[in-house]
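> agent: user asked for a holo structure of the chain below bound to pyridoxal-5'-phosphate. Plan: (1) validate sequence alphabet, (2) canonicalize SMILES, (3) run complex prediction with ligand conditioning, (4) return tokens. Step 1... ok. Step 2... ok. Step 3 dispatched.
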Amino acid sequence: MRVMEPILYRDTRGLDPKPRTFTEAVIAGIAEGGGLYVPERVPELTLAQIAGSADLTYAQRATDIFLRFGIDVPDERVAELMELAYGAAFDTTSVAPVVEVDSGTHVLELWHGPTSAFKDMALQCMPLFFSEAISMRLAAGRKLDDYLVLVATSGDTGKAALEGFADRDHTRVVVFYPVDGVSDIQRRQMVTQHGGNVAVFGVRGNFDDCQTAVKQAFTDPEFARTLHERHGLTMSSANSINWGRLMPQIVYYISAYADMIAVGAVRPGEPIDVCVPTGNFGNILAGYYAKRMGVPIGRLLCASNENHVLTDFLGTGAYDISHRRFVTTPSPSMDILVSSNLERLLFELSGRPEDVRHWQEALTAGGRFLVDRHTFEGMREHFAGDWVTNDESLAVIRRVWEDHGYLLDPHTAVAWEVAERLATDDPMLVVSTAHWAKFGEDAYKALNNLDYADPLPAEARGMSGVDLVECVARLAPGAAPIPRNLATLGEQPVRFEDVVDPGREGVETAVTAWLEQG
Ligand SMILES: *Cc1c(COP(=O)(O)O)cnc(C)c1O
């Protein structure tokens, strides 16, 4: 069943002269000239089609959406890949369940995947299509390198990328994490990773040191030549600006609305508000595309932590990081100053790639840009936002546990608070992006009435991440159980112990030594 003509992709800055197919956009990641790929047209669904998807499995829902985009992978193969992506790796058959936590407020749980954070929703899917795209080209007789995916991570992305790419054909993945910047649980998740095509290295320093070193290696032509000539490898980044990561995220908004109709939480066509804890703007942007496809979403509520550049942007139309200090928060996956997927929204609302290019150039050169009135009004039509302090985040975790017996992680807590502040009579869908147990220390502090900056009390200090999480589970009986993958972390053998110096050389030497070892 080929539902639609293939949709091609253009770049947001208008610098790539050729429209690309889906698999071309996935392999390229970013367009020449720095723009991001966006679909030339967005397929539309009727309400009956949306409601009807409630009868399908999650894998079938995802297949249906990908086929409507007319992607350049055979239909049966799309269905097979979706069964692989959204099957046994998730701890619930519904994959992305919607639960009612308060009357009128539902939570969309996106953390039932193998790494207990929402990055799995995209990274269980995207590497399959990445590897398929390479296989298709090889089968057609093209000569092609395998791909080396380099990742610098502050926690969630590294593990989700390892789990998504492990043992996928034609790919290898190397993850670098800052030894001074990830939690005990996050580190253990990465250094125990299985798979013959993966490696993990600690970098001495913080996330910034780590990211800079990986970027330098990524753009070093000498290193690229060595990889190609000696190992038949081309570098790729597979980060959240890849369209292959964005498209799978559209599916769960459609899926959630269908489920809400099915349980009578909304009447078909009744608008809902959606509140999303936002960092790089990928998740909430997928909600915007779902709205364009026909999901009755009223407002998209953008929830931020103390790094609230997006809240200010939605208020003023000025994106300004020229004097902004980076703040550490209990929701580290939202600690972002340059929100890279915002560029796609600016393109969709302004329709003018030359404007997008100028804004991005101004941001790079002077740390700020101001959008025009038309684009600003478009933004205000669909989006609203607010931000939450560190101490408020922990207070929300405590309050929602006491009032509703539901334990939030600190990212979802930010969204919960913003949803409450901006609520109207419309049903609210709060998007939950991590299992509480991934951030056990914050849950522990919240349930013990501590502030974010307070040290852990003596009895909890020095506990391993897993022990602390078990302690929280005893304090909060009835909270979602600790996922098996996290509970057994202490028993998994450590496979990767190497720590390297920051800088380009540390990264390059680590990668070449690993490749030469076979
Ligand atoms: C990545 C992440 C976010 C932010 O999502 P964006 O798509 O970058 O806006 C929020 N919460 C968690 C737990 C994450 O891992």
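> agent: step 4 complete. Summary for user: The mean pLDDT is 95. Residues 117-119, 156, 240, 277-283, 333-334, 411, 433-434 surround pyridoxal-5'-phosphate (CB under 6 Å).
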